[in-house]
Automatic annotation (TrEMBL):
Keyword vocabulary terms for this entry: Transferase, Ubl conjugation pathway
The protein's name: PINIT domain-containing protein
UniProt entry tagged with the keyword Transferase: yes
Alphabetical GO biological process terms: protein sumoylation
Highest rank taxon of the organism: Eukaryota
Any one annotated GO CC term: chromatin
PANTHER family tied to this protein: TONALLI, ISOFORM E, ZINC FINGER MIZ DOMAIN-CONTAINING PROTEIN
Listed Pfam families: PINIT
Residues covered by the PINIT domain: 1-114
Pathway involvement of the protein, from the record: Protein modification; protein sumoylation
Matches recorded under PROSITE patterns: PINIT
Amino acid sequence: MSQHRNTVTVSIKLADHPEIRQCLEDKSYRIMVFCAGDTHGTQEISFPHQSELKVNGDEVKANLRGLKKKPGSTRPVDITSHLRLLPNYTNNVDFIYALTTKVYYLAIYLCKVVRTEDLVARIKTGQKISKATTLRELVEKSKDTEIETTSQVMSLKCPLSYMRLELPLQEQGPQWICPICSRSVTFERLAVDEYVQDILAKTPRDLEQVTIEPSGEWSIPGPQNSTPRKSTSASFDIIDDLEISVPDRAVVSKSSATPNRSIAPSLGTPSMVDSRESTAPRPSGGTSTKRPAPAVIDLTLSSDDEDSAPPPPKRQQLNFGSVADYRHF
């Protein structure tokens, strides 16, 4: 592996490059390392797959590959903090690479970092897409006989931050892939969309979307129908008509069960009871609103009690707060 490693060394001395002194006076000036595969036209930053960077013998921790499967996403390497900017000190920048037959070009530049606020100010005073231009494009698309155009809903939120738009642009900067069109452009091609800017100025800040007609006219969507839908399923008052009780074995006497209706013995609380068999019958006539007495199912019965004597007479349950009529099935 060692015989395939190659090293390129670049020396930087403050006395030879007096403009570097700006890094000491203004922190917005930085010394950065660039690498590309060609020298003609605009090139994407690209380092060899296996490479590393050292300054004065110390390795520079930087991502030289960028994002996976996204060419051009590599950022230049800032080496300002690794340099010793003294008048007569020679800084050695070593670039080490291996296992590549492709030609690369390495360059070191003095760069100035521009604040986001300054970039926004440039965009505001730069190119603009007029409202008339946007309306004309919408009308031309609606006249296409092969494409049927309908109204569409446009969100007033930024697709990246999900906050309300402040300065609508039709493109994104380099390597900031537009979430709508999935394309990237240079900073110089960014332009303000005055059509959307006019909509933002005429709508309240809490409005999230508007409806755009094929003619270019827009409107605020009406309030949605918030009336709850009426349930189509029937409602049954089963809880009030059925009461399950597990009496004490020492108090409750054995009783007979209706033929072909037996309940297996259980010592725990039942998880489910068939309401079709255990629900007490409702009165079929009259207008009385009196609720029938709840039915009690004795879970202590066994299958051996099916041929026993008739059920005992009704008796009062003393360990409940209210008096009720209990029957055994």
